[in-house]
Design a protein that fits this description.
By secondary structure, the protein is an alpha/beta fold. Helix content is 20%, strand content 30%. It has a single domain, classed as Ribonuclease Z/Hydroxyacylglutathione hydrolase-like (Metallo-beta-lactamase, Chain A, 4-Layer Sandwich), CATH 3.60.15.10. It has a seven-stranded mixed beta sheet with strand order 6-5-4-3-2-1-14. A seven-stranded mixed beta sheet has the order 7-8-9-10-11-12-13, covered by helices on one side. α3 (150-170) packs parallel to α4 (189-196).
Length: 245
């Protein structure tokens, strides 16, 4: 199957397959570079668009979730229960959408959507679309800050390992996972790359600071999964993945 991935900003990407397009965590205006909305509108034009939202933080969710998707032929929203609680009105009342809870599985418009509880807020997603599988991590990461106690660090490390085990067992073609340089452990980016075994690994949660991403390639050696290393909005990758019919 031929797919393409386009970087928008931070943790926002557009993933396109022959049948569908997916927009992940379109952030609020304060987290968007100039031209991002126009870029998204062009990327999703005339597509069957699925808008996946991992949680309600500003760097992952825009106040206007309609305008950027208006060029799509159809739009479907997948979002966790913290979104209507913390950002009421963001999802239009008449929208075609599904609200999800952690650690559940849903059948929705041809997709099988499995959710993982995030250790920050909201959920991460495991999605199967006619045999094409991807993981989108949202803010699920190995959040071990310098101030963490030994007990907190051990709990977080175990939580993250168990989550990545689930991702590995899902056998995803594409993995989007946090590689956050604010943390010494990069939020578990190296472990996620080595543990999940995807055909393509997409680092994210960069806050637009992408100049160091080639260093991540050096760290992991790009031995098991192809890396999508991007520099700025609009950078993309096109490739074929092996999908069993």
């Amino acid at each position: 199957m031929d797919i393409s991935i386009t970087y928008i900003h931070h943790s926002c990407f557009v993933l396109k397959t022959p049948a569908r397009a997916y927009l992940f965590d379109y952030p609020n205006v304060s987290h968007l570079p100039d031209g991002a909305e126009a870029l998204v509108r062009e990327q999703v034009r005339d597509t069957d668009l699925f808008v996946l939202i991992s949680h309600s933080h500003d760097d992952h969710l825009n106040d206007d979730m309609v305008t950027m998707a208006a060029t799509a032929s159809s739009v479907h929203y997948i979002y966790p229960d913290d979104v209507p609680d913390m950002r009421p009105g963001v999802i239009p009342e008449d929208a075609d959408g599904i609200m999800v809870e952690p650690d559940e599985t849903y059948e929705y418009n041809g997709l099988t959507v499995e959710t993982l509880m995030s250790n920050d807020l909201g959920v991460a997603y495991l999605v199967d679309a006619d045999g094409f599988r991807f993981y989108y991590g949202g803010d699920l990461a190995k959040w071990i800050w310098k101030t963490a106690s030994a007990q907190e660090a051990a709990f977080t490390a175990n939580f993250f390992k168990e989550a990545m085990d689930r991702v590995r067992d899902f056998k995803p073609h594409v993995v989007f996972s946090n590689v956050d340089k604010r943390l010494e452990n990069l939020g578990g980016g190296v472990e996620a790359y080595r543990q999940t075994g995807a055909e393509v690994f997409v680092p994210m949660h960069t806050f637009g600071e992408t100049d160091w991403l080639p260093d991540f390639r050096t760290m992991v050696g790009e031995e098991t999964s192809q890396l999508f290393i991007y520099e700025g909005p609009g950078d993309g990758i096109s490739l074929s993945v092996s999908v069993e019919e």
